[in-house]
Specification:
The chain has 373 residues and is α+β, with helices and mostly antiparallel strands. The protein has helices at residues 7-21, 72-81, 132-142, 154-157, 209-215, 267-277, 328-336, and strands spanning 2-6, 32-37, 42-48, 52-59, 61-64, 67-71, 86-93, 96-100, 105-109, 128-131, 158-165, 170-177, 181-189, 200-205, 220-225, 229-234, 237-242, 262-266, 287-293, 296-303, 307-314, 322-327, 342-346, 354-358, 364-368.
Length: 373
């Protein structure tokens, strides 16, 4: 092989796959990236960690065709600091690769491409196009709920993405939970979902979401899935991940608020109070108490080793008062994902869970379970 690739385009691709190629797997070859000529002026780039896969094609000047496997991390470092706009790459001997010119060059030991596991290069034509910014916000919200280190339940290790056609529109819904809280985010569109995907859902591992977010940099993405893979495509790039096996519990009913019990409050005021009051709370589980009475919300915390804190703010509340408790960190995490300045807390009584959503944006909502006191 003897080719020349534009530096900035190659750098952008290699930066995206570093999370994939840095994962520990049973195959040492997965630390490498595969570069292969696929036509007279085009190459493909492949990477996998046996859970996630990346594939793309790009233009290149090709003198001799071939295929190489080279260490992804070192190759990325070389490309990142290479002084020229185009980077020559040549296999000069069996699995010995020269990168650069006569003035600036590196000789790297490659690997055997034949040992590299297969990577999916076909994209399912039954796909739905969606706005990439909205999709990134959706999966970011789902990843705000982190599973415990020893967690094994698939529905907690993943986010559930559900595709649904309505009369003249469609919806992509995301649910994420750890049984203590639930987050729902939704993308609405006038584009209908292919019938093969309609009313179906997929469990996407949370651990790949940071890499998936890094992958997306176009205006639109196409989403599709099979019984084994969830796939995101943009332009000539494809990112696929093995889906999790298992069912996600139907928790949509827990995020439907009863408008009778809505309590409006400024998001920033609530967040600031929680920040201050939780200073003295236990760091591992920062429990705060919410007391509703006489148009007033009082939030308090106490810690036998440190002391106590209490702060009040005015609200519209003319029902019978009650006190309940929540994990302050959970609520603050939810507030980060709400775009509105004012939010609604839906609480019936001290035993009920709390539903939180923005006053205007209907595409995000969350529920948090109370702590028994």
């Amino acid at each position: 092989m003897k080719i020349k690739i534009e530096k900035q385009r190659l750098k952008k691709v290699l930066e995206k796959i570093q999370g994939i190629t840095s994962q520990k797997t049973s195959l040492q070859i997965t630390k490498n990236v595969i570069i292969e000529t696929v036509s007279d002026n085009e190459i493909s780039i492949k990477a996998t960690d046996l859970t996630s896969e990346y594939f793309c094609t790009m233009e290149a000047e090709i003198e001799n065709k071939g295929i190489i496997a080279v260490n992804s991390r070192k190759f990325f470092d070389i490309v990142k600091y290479f002084p020229d706009d185009f980077i020559p790459i040549e296999e000069i001997d069996f699995q010995w690769i020269k990168i650069g010119t006569e003035d600036v060059f590196f000789h790297l030991v490659g690997a055997s491409p034949e040992d590299f596991p297969g990577v999916s290069v076909d994209f399912n034509s039954n796909s739905i196009e969606t706005d990439s910014v909205l999709f990134k916000k959706m999966i970011t919200a789902g990843n705000s709920i982190h599973p415990e280190t020893n967690e094994l339940r698939p529905f907690i290790l993943g986010i559930n993405i559900y595709f649904l056609n309505m009369d003249q529109s469609s919806s992509i819904k995301m649910f994420s939970t750890d049984t203590k809280r639930i987050v729902k985010s939704e993308i609405r569109s006038e584009l209908l979902i292919p019938e093969e995907l309609n009313s179906k859902s997929v469990l996407v591992p949370k651990k790949i979401i940071p890499d998936l977010i890094k992958f997306i940099d176009d205006d639109k993405v196409n989403l599709s899935f099979t019984t084994e893979l969830f796939t995101v495509r943009q332009g000539k790039e494809i990112y696929s991940v093995n889906i999790l096996e298992g069912d996600f519990p139907d928790c949509s009913g827990l995020i439907v608020p009863d408008e009778e019990y809505g309590i409006e409050i400024d998001k920033y005021i609530l967040n600031d109070i929680l920040q201050r009051v939780s200073i003295v709370a236990d760091e591992k589980t920062p429990i705060v108490f919410f007391n509703f009475s006489d148009n007033t919300l009082t939030i308090a915390s106490s810690n036998p080793e440190l002391g106590e804190a209490k702060e009040s703010t005015g609200i519209v509340f003319d029902r019978e008062g009650f006190e309940t408790a929540f994990n302050a960190r959970y609520i603050m995490d939810i507030l980060k994902d709400i775009q509105d300045d004012s939010i609604l807390l839906y609480l019936k009584d001290k035993k009920s869970h709390c539903i939180i959503k923005g006053c205007e944006n209907i595409d995000y909502a969350a529920a948090i379970m109370p702590i028994k006191i």
